[in-house]
Every structure is written in structure tokens, then in C-alpha cells.
Amino acid sequence: MAARGASLTIAAMNTSTFSSATPSDEDATPQLPRIAVLATGGTIAGAAADATNTSGYQAGVVGVEQLLAVVPALSTVARIAPEQIASVDSKDMEMSLWTTLAQRINTLLADDDIDGVVVTHGTDTLEETAYLLHLTIKSDKPVVLTAAMRPASALSADGPLNLLNAVTVAAHADSRGQGVLVAFNNKIHSARDVVKTSTYAVDAFQSPDIGALGWVQDGRVEFQRSVVRPHTLATEFVIGAKWPHVEIVVSYAGVSRIAVDALVAAGVRGIVVAGTGNGSIHASMQQALADAASQGVVVVRASRVGSGHVMRNGAAADDALGFVSAGSLNPYKARVLLMLALAAGATGPVMLQKTFDTY
Ligand code: SIN
């Protein structure tokens, strides 16, 4: 949603926006939880030429100190330790940045002085980063991602309240042990379930089928359910610098086998297919994927539908074809899990199906 090259500087933004003092350790109440706020860019740090422009702006240009400065109420919730990890439009997220981010969070959370972490991120790939962290952070302290649909320069920018709510959730005792969370538009979602479902609405994130874990409003946090599948401390995954090559293909009317054959020729370790309906695949593409699987490429069947799950041996004969079912993970999260599993040494469809059934 962020257009590149918008010509704007912060000076052109609403000046009252950035006039408040940054909350500092000195004037915060010492017994408040200490929360690290790690900024990575995104629309929450975006700026446009005028306040009515919510689509043509540059993402990731406002620094973490300025993001914090417009939310003086943060100092009543937590002692903030800000860090600028990156300044990217999250459409350009790279796995090397995932490694840097996860390693930094693990280091911070190993420190007794840090009680939780908030990550500000772009909305476009937030669900992928959140799930990656959910599987690789080795702490039960809260990690909460947040973002915004409107740039920091916009009328009714949603970032400041989302940031305050994210810090409120990260500072709350009930958030411990819930895995990585996403606080957005007053809802608290699990990183495993949450997906972006709107290109423009401020209520852009949903957990299809099962709903949010809880809510946050005016300093109050309430969880209505908890996460069942293993995460954080309970996974076998550790963050590293090795990222096995896994790509995603889509099945649609008239699709050919060209993309799959090209990926196999390029040496991919795995292919996730965003199938139609219950992960069904056009016959041409399915034959190409079966050929890929017979050559040792891991093929995972997910769905392009956006909710529901893919039943093993439902719309394709997984046992006979050597495929793996993604269950309720969408194709993008299925790719994250497959990369981590392959990096951890998992091999073959039987072992990988167990991984997908577990996480
Ligand atoms: C991004 O993902 O970095 C840009 C779009 C957004 O944050 O809404």
C-alpha cells in the first residue's frame, strides 16, 4: 500500500504532531515494566506530503524517537527502551533482517531488566514476521507486534494508539506465555492466526475462523482464549543465518507447469502451493509438483482462500503424490514453517507432515 518516492519531509507534517516530549527513563515511575520498542519501518513510520494523503507516502521514514514522542501516555504504562532496528517498507522484508530481529529480541529478553518487547512493523508482511518470531523466540516474556494503516502524517493516524496499546499488552502480566502477539485496532491476535485482510481499513487484521485472543482498550487488557499449539520455548526451532530456498506458486484457471519446473531447475528445497478451495491444484501444475516431489523437493499444499484449512488427502492424494498438507496455515506462514523445519534438518513428507500437524 505504500507508494515509493513520495516527496515529503517530516517538516511538512502537522507540527503539533511531534511537539510532545519523548518519555524518558528519568521521569518514568521506576517500578513500571521496562519494554524495548524495536522499530523496523512500515506505514506506522510513514510520511506523506499532506495530512489527507493516506496512500501515496513513503514508509519507514519516521524514527522511533518521533513515534514515541507523540504518545506521552506511554510513560504511565512502561519505561521504554527504544531501538531502531531497520527502516524498511515491509514488502521488502528480507530473511537476513528476520535473523537480526529475532536474535536481538532473544538477547533483550535474556536480560532480567527487560520485561517485554514491542516491534513496530509494516502491515504488508507483518503476519510472516510475527509467525517467524512465534516459532523462534526463546522466552515466555511478551513480544507484541504492531503497525498502522495510515502514515504518521495522516489525519486520524492509527499508529499512536496502536503503539500505546501494544506497549500496554507487552507490559501486562497476562500476556506472558501467550507466544508472539499482534496488537492492532484494539484487538490482540496470536501470531499464528492473524492475517491482513484489507488494503485500506484500519481494522485490517483478523484471525479468520477463530477470532482474536482478546482485546485492549484504555489501559485494560483482557484475554478470552489462549494459544494451543506449541510456540516460543516449546519449539525445536532456533533462529540462524541459514534460510533454505522455499517459494510459493498459485493454482488458477489455465495455469501451466512452467513456474514449478523453473523453480525445480533453480534448485529450490521446497514449494508451497496456494491451491484453490481445499488446496486443490490444476492438473497441469499438480503433475509438475508430483514430478518435483519425486525429485526430493518438498511440496506443501495450502489454500489461496483466506480461511478454513486444507484436509490431508482431501482435494489431492497426498500419500500417493508425496505432498504435505499445510492444515490451517496460509501459504505465507506455511513457507515460514517449512523454511524453519528444513533448516532444523527435517526431511521427507512424513516427518514434515508431523511438523505441520504440530505447529
Ligand atoms: C509496509 O508494510 O511497510 C507498508 C504498508 C503498511 O505498513 O501498511
From TrEMBL:
Residues 34-227 form the L-asparaginase N-terminal domain. InterPro entries: AsnASE_II, Asp/glu_Ase-like_sf, Asparaginase/glutaminase-like, Asparaginase/glutaminase_AS1, Asparaginase/glutaminase_AS2, Asparaginase_C, L-asparaginase_C, L-asparaginase_N. Residues 1-21 form the signal peptide. Pfam families: Asparaginase (PF00710), Asparaginase_C (PF17763). Substrate binds at residues 90, 123-124. PROSITE patterns: ASN_GLN_ASE_1 (PS00144), ASN_GLN_ASE_2 (PS00917), ASN_GLN_ASE_3 (PS51732). One of its GO terms (biological process) is asparagine metabolic process. Residues 245-346 form the Asparaginase/glutaminase C-terminal domain. Keywords: Hydrolase, Signal. The active site is at residues 43, 123. Its EC number is 3.5.1.1. GO terms for molecular function: asparaginase activity. The keyword Signal applies. It is an enzyme of class 3 (hydrolase). Belongs to the asparaginase 1 family. This is L-asparaginase. The lineage of its organism: Bacteria, Pseudomonadati, Pseudomonadota, Betaproteobacteria, Burkholderiales.
